[in-house]
Amino acid sequence: MMRNLALFAGVFALFALTGMMQSWNLALSILNLSLISAIMALGVNIQWGYAGLFNTGIMGFTALGGLAVVLVSTRPVVEGWTAGGTGILLGLFLGAASIALAIFTWNRLPKGRMRMLATLAICVLGFILFRAVFDPAVTAVEAFNPATAGNLGGLGLNPTLAWPVGGLLAAAAAWAIGKISLGLRSDYLAIATLGIAEIIIAVMKNEDWLARGVKNIIDMPRPWPVPYEVDLQQSAGFLDWATRWGFEPTTASSIVVKLIYVVLFTAVLLGVIWLSERALNSPWGRMMRAIRDNEVSAAAMGKDVTKRHLQVFILGSAVVGIAGAMYTSMNGQLTPGEYNPLRFTFLVWVMVIVGGSGNNWGSVLGGLLIGWLWLIVESLGPAVMRGIVAGLEEGPLKAHLIDSAQHMRLLTMGVILLLVLRFSPRGLIPEK
Asked: Cα 173 to the chain's mean position, in Å?
């Protein structure tokens, strides 16, 4: 217990040193991103630590959480809905109905050529009907003011409501993916989830009617109760407070906003930890660990392994979706191009491994530590590299090394992972 407390105290000391030696704005920015990363790590730990599911599609569920913020918080584009909103909804309904009818037909008809031909006919006709309704509507929506709109927009609600919606959207996608992929072997499951995540990103990039694709959604409203810095700077009460305490109003407003985000994200993180600990120490959690350790024995005891895997896959993905919605809300924009497997999949896996898979507090520690390292190395890397090569003569070698400073974060992550696997293979806080 004391060792765990010391580890957390050491991590928070790193954030404090960053604030004192560089700036509190930077320290709080890194802390907010690390808190979100810790929530993502908890979601992955639910899947891997509880049930041994190797999900490499974390990026896709994070992006779905971000998409939920757009669909919930941005204002509806009335002209887009008038031009083709109904046609898009009808087209999507026809596509979903065709898939449902094909599945129903496949399950109801006896095996044989007739079942195959009937299912194929439904799929082909359904696809033709779907494209006939969907494509003209999409063209009409995207034609309206593509420089600033070209999409349907959202519901215009508070972005805080988008956080649970992001979880629900990711959970729905996880259910669909799990029904297809969870019967696969673990290595095939990893390949399938990675591919599906890339498909999700590709859809978000290319379907402009949904969230403007690569043209991005910017200037989204902030979640309640986070104010804008400009509003604080125009508040007489805030200016009086900043003056009395000797703070510069611009810097103080930025710090206050980041502190409010810290409170919000910490509250969500603590809620997820509490629920995760309750689940892990319940009969359900013990059953999941028994399935993880020996699926054959668990199945012999009458446990439905595939059903339980689906449950835990949905729960973990929902947590990742909530974190993805929080990330987009804080940034105030959705940029599909920034979602890449290195940052939003494999770095989260490093957090879980370093912290200790199977232990919720270990995942939180890994999220905070690796989140700090990933971001601080980006700002310190160039200065460190310039110090390393200070004794070299000016020339192409020195210039190349300085230009390579951006890769120091990858080197740092690799070294940290190797050290942890060598000296603490079960993570900094191992599973009990």
From this structure: 13
**With left for phi above 0 and alpha for psi between -120 and 50, is residue 150 left, alpha or beta?**
left
pLDDT digits (tens, 9 = 90+) for 385-404: 777 777 777 777 777 777 77
**H helix intervals, 186-248:** 186-206, 208-211, 229-233, 236-244
The two tokens of residue 341 are 């497997």
- Tell whether pTM > 0.85: yes
Instruction: Map tokens 């192409």 to a residue.
Output: 396
Report the run of H or E that residue 223 belongs to, with start and end: none
| 301 — pLDDT class (breaks 50, 70, 90) | confident
Alpha-carbon Rg for the chain, nearest whole angstrom, is 24
Give the CA-trace dihedral at 237, 239, 241, 246, to 10 degrees: -170
136 preceded by a cis bond (ω within 30 of 0):
no
Residue-wise pLDDT for 45-63, tens only, equals 999 988 888 888 899 999 9
Instruction: Estimate the share of the chain in helix, then strand, then coil, as percent rounded to the nearest 5.
Output: 80, 0, 20
Length of the chain: 432
For 334, phi then psi, to 5°, come to -115, 120
Helix count (H) and strand count (E) of the chain? 20, 0
Yes or no: say if 214 and 146 are a contact pair by the CB < 8 Å rule.
no
Give pairs for 177-186: CB < 8 Å, separation 24+: 177/57, 177/313, 178/309, 178/310, 178/313, 178/314, 179/310, 182/53, 182/306, 182/309, 182/310, 182/313, 183/306, 186/52, 186/53, 186/54
